[in-house]
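Recall the central idea of this unit: under ordinary conditions, the amino acid sequence of a chain determines the structure it adopts. In this exercise we apply that idea directly, starting from the sequence alone.
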Amino acid sequence: MENKAFIDPPERIPFYIRIGLMISKRITKKDLLAPKLLAWYPKVAVSSGVLESLVAHGGKDLDERILKLIRIQASMSVGCPFCIDMNSFEHEKSGISEEEMQGLAGRIDLGEIQTLSPKERLALGYAKLISKTPVLVTDEFMEKVKSEFTEREIVIVASTAAQVNYWARLLIALGVPPEGFSDKCDLLMKH
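Accordingly, the structure predicted from this sequence is:
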């Protein structure tokens, strides 16, 4: 996999975008290429940064594990190398096993993985549906989702998967390569 995007970042990056780059570097411990590329159009850089800062991270609604599962599944479903790299990083800290990772990568049927709860299986199914084009969610499927999730949780699950899809499609369109968060990115990409 080539480690160069389709375009180069601009030579001059506005100061307010540089502040965002410093924050991103402090959080990720990496000098990310993606936000530099977005500096070509500062409105999208700022709005993307706001979107990222407001994403659900667990706590009072859904736990970190289920959100991480959703992010990894959406990344895998769309096939975004950068997203798989970033979202699968330190998956074990969220209680996600190697077997579960193989299931998310499509190598093992998720139905055969005993450690996934019915609620997690539904969330993963929903993330897969949201990540397909066209998005087709049946009334029957939504009834199952409503039986396990509150309305607020449904919005969190849908927006989490949609947020990954936003980044995935944008980063794939710009050719942004993985940044080396996870040593398993190449392994997980191969089907």
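Residues 15-53 form one domain.
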